[in-house]
Amino acid sequence: MTSRALGKLMKKYASASWEDRKSAVEEMGRLGESAAVGTLVSGLADAHPEVRAAAERALPAVGPWALGNAISSAPASTRHIVVKAIGPAITADFARDVLRSLVKDSQLGDYASRQQYTPEGLASINAMSLQMGMIPRGEHIIKALKAATKDPLPAVRQAAGEAAQQFTEVYGLVDAAMGLVAAPEAERLSTLRSLGSPPAPEALLALLKHSQAGLDQFATALQDGDIEALQRSLQGGAKLNVKLKGRSSALHIAARHGHTKVIAFLLGKGLSVDAQDDGWNRPLHLAASCGFPGAAAELLKAGASLTGQTKEGLTPLHAAAQNGHVELVQLLLDAGAKVNALDWQRRTPLALAEAGGHTETAHLLRQHGALLQTPTPASTPDTSGCVMGCAVMLLLVGLPVSFLLWSILR
C-alpha cells in the first residue's frame, strides 16, 4: 500500500504545476519512505523556491540510512543540504525507536501473562532491540559522514561536522533511553503524556538528556561506594532497576568495585543477585574476577549461583582462578563450587590458573582434587574392524554364520 501511494506521489511530482510538486513533496515527507529520497533530492534543485524549501523540510523524514546513500549521488550544489539533513533524521529516527518501545511495552500486560514473560523481561527485550537497531545504521552513517568531511566543498564539510556532532549526542543518550524503556509501566505512561501528542523528537531528547545526567550521578555513587550519594540520587528520580553500560545492573557495578555495604543495600532493595550483563557475567563473576572476597561473600549469602557461566563458559571459580585470587578461590570452594567445572573450551579452573602462572592458586586447587583437564567421555567403539572381520568370515565359513555375526554386531 505504501509503495503504491509513493508511486502516485512520484507521478504527481512530475506535474507541470509547482503547487502539485510542492504538495507531492510534502506528502512524501509525511509518508517517510526511504524510496522517496531520490525525488526529494531532485526537489532541492526545483525551479520554484517553495518546492525547494518543501523538499529540504521533508528530507529528514526518509531516515539517515537513505540520506547516507544519497550523499554521493546528490548534485554538488545541493549536497550540503542532504548532509545537513542527516542530523535531524538521526534525531527523529532515534526518537521514533524510543517512543515505539515505550508504547509497545506499556500495552503488553496481557501478552506478558500469555507468553509467561514478566513485564521486566519484556522491557529488557525491547531495550536490547532498541540498542541493536541503532548499531547497524550507525556504522553505515559514520562511513557516509567521514566521506563527507573530505568533500571538496566547504559547505559539505561543515554540514558533515554538524551532523556528526548531533549523531554523537544522540548515541550518547542510548543508556538513558534503555533505562526509560525498562522503567515501570506507570513511569513510561507518565513520560509519554509529558511529551505531548504527537511527541516531538526534541522533547524526548531533552527528557533523555535529563535522564542521562541522573544516570551519570547514579553510576558515580555506585563506583565510589557512597551510599548517601546513592540515596540522594534515588530521591532525585534515579531507578535502581536501570541498566547501565553493557547492560550492567547497579549490583554489577558495586560488585566490580568491591563495595560490600552497597551490595547489601542493593540486595535489601530487591535487586536480582544473578542478573546478567551483555557478557552473561553475574555480579559474583565480577567480584571473583576483581578480587573482592567481602563482596563475593555478601553475594553468596544472598544465594548467588556458583554454576552460572559467562559467554565464554566461565564459572565464578574460573574467574577467580584465572586472576590468581587465592582467598576467593578458597571462599568459592568452601561454598561448594565445582573444582573441575569446564568452560566452553573444556578448560578447568586449574588450567586457567596454570596458564596465568598463579602457582599458589594452582596448588590450592590441586589440594581440592583439581585436574588440568577432565577425562573425555568414552568414545563409541569402532566397529570398522568387526565389519572387515565379517567380510572375511563370509568368505571363509559361508553366508549363514557371517549373517548371524552381522546381526549381533548391529
Topology:
Layout: H1 2-13, H2 18-31, H3 37-43, H4 49-58, H5 64-70, H6 79-106, H7 109-115, H8 119-148, H9 154-171, H10 174-181, H11 185-195, H12 201-224, H13 227-235, H14 250-256, H15 260-268, H16 283-290, H17 293-301, H18 316-322, H19 326-334, H20 349-355, H21 359-367, H22 384-397, H23 399-409
Q: Indicate the overall shape.
A: elongated
Mean pLDDT: 82
Main sheet characteristics: none
Distance from first to last alpha carbon: 61 Å
Can you tell me the residue ranges where pLDDT is under 50 for at least 5 consecutive residues? 378-410
Structural class: mainly alpha
Q: Which architecture of the largest domain does the CATH hierarchy give at level 2?
A: Alpha Horseshoe
| Contiguous helical run count | 23
CATH topology of the largest domain: Leucine-rich Repeat Variant
- Alpha-carbon Rg, integer: 31 Å
Under the CATH scheme, which class of the largest domain?
Mainly Alpha
Strand content: under 5%
| Helix share, percent | 55-70%
Write down the domain tally: 2
Key phrases:
Serine Threonine Protein Phosphatase 5, Tetratricopeptide repeat, mainly alpha, 2 domains, single chain, Leucine-rich Repeat Variant, 410 residues, disordered C terminus, 67% helix, elongated, 23 helices
